[in-house]
Amino acid sequence: MAIDFSRYHEPVSDLFAGRGSEDVLSNWKLSDEQVEHYRRYGYVSGIRVLEPYQIEQLRRELEAFFNPAHCGRELWYEYHTNESPDPDQVLFHALGAWRIGPGLHDILWHRAWTVPASQLLEGPVRFWHDQLFCKPPQEGGVVAWHQDYSYWTRTRPMAHLTCWIGLDDATEENGCLEYIPGSHQWELLPITGLAGDMDAIRQVLNDDQWEQLQHPVKIELKAGEASFHHPLLIHGSRCNRSQRPRRAVVLNAVRDGVRSDSNEPLLDGVPPIPAGQPLGGRFFPLLLDRLTT
Question: Exposure string (b/e) for 84-94, b if CB count within 10 Å is 16 or more?
Answer without folding.
Answer: beeeebbbbbb
